[in-house]
Amino acid sequence: MKCIKQVLFLALILLIIPAFAFAGLTDLQIGAWNVQGATAPDGSGSYYFVDGNSGSDGNDGKSWATAYKTLTVAFAASHANIASASDRWARRNTIYIAGDRFDEDLVAFPQKTDVIGVGSCDAYPMPGISGNHAPVNTHYSTRFINIRFEPGASSDIVTLTSSGSGCEFDGCVFVGVFGSYTAPSAIDATAHPLLRIRNCRFEGAFSGDVIDIGAGDASGTEIVGNTIVGGADNGIVITEVATVAGMSSRGVIADNYIEVADKVIDTRAESVFNCIGNRCISGEALGASSYVLDLTYACDNMITGNDAAILLPDIANF
Predict the structure, then answer these.
(1) By the number of CB atoms within 10 A of the CB, which of 31, 68, 204, 292 ranks highest?
(2) Which residues of 247-283 are buried (b: 16+ CB within 10 A; e: fewer)?
(3) How confident is the model at residue 13 (pLDDT cuts 50, 70, 90)?
């Protein structure tokens, strides 16, 4: 009896320790690299696999050995799975993708799904997607992790609208110029609340606003911990009157490093965004051509122009 009790106690410990360890995860580890701020897949839903090099859309997509070939097919499968029954609606699916480059223009995003890049493409420790994506389906909480986005035409790489909400990009790379194509914006979002862009890198001469937030509901938007380098125009811009609705909070633009030719950040003079701890370099002189901030909701932003540097708000003159 004593031996049985010891075995049961050991089994209980083995169950409890992983549960506590998993509950504490705030970063997603892919190989030897952590995507900061991204939570690990919760395991509540179904798993799908996409191999852009050797997969087949005739497969069931449920393992690497039977992986799909295209994102379009995998996205449709996950989206349908979430919507298939009441016991699926509150779950969260995971799609693992590997391949050199997926040449696809995505017009539908999978709801309540993490799309996680693994493997490598050329010198990059992540797969690439070459295309311009404008989902028109109803989608909630699609999250992209560790993926390199490249333009497949000279238009915005990702365009988000009120057809969805809660789209997230964690630890991704967006490239402004690829081959003969130059993207105006990496992400253009209009009335898409709960958008989160975290720990991403935006590189190259985007010809417009690298991140463009348009009119309408921007509740809970987070643009945090990103690096923007080499933009030929502006960095993060609220181009029209964004609003906050319901129980969600003001947006946050925080802890970004930005180096662009013109305005580094433009939140409008009266903004629904808090602007905190950004470090910025503009090719313009300090003033309206290099930044526009609502100083009532700003703290500790350092901006260097081609003539001087300033900390905003300037405590001495605030």
Answers:
(1) 68
(2) eeeebbbbbbbbbbbbbbbbbbeebbbbbbebbbbbe
(3) very low
| pTM, entire model | 0.87
Question: How many domains are contained in the chain?
Answer: 1
32-89, pLDDT tens digit by residue? Answer: 345 544 555 667 899 999 999 999 999 999 999 999 999 999 999 999 999 988 778 8
Kindly state the tokens that stand for 113: 């799904």
Residue type, 295: L
Domain extent at residue 216: 151-317
141: left (phi over 0), alpha (psi -120 to 50) or beta: left
Render pLDDT for 156-189 as a digit per residue (tens, 0 to 9). 999 999 999 999 999 999 999 999 999 999 999 9
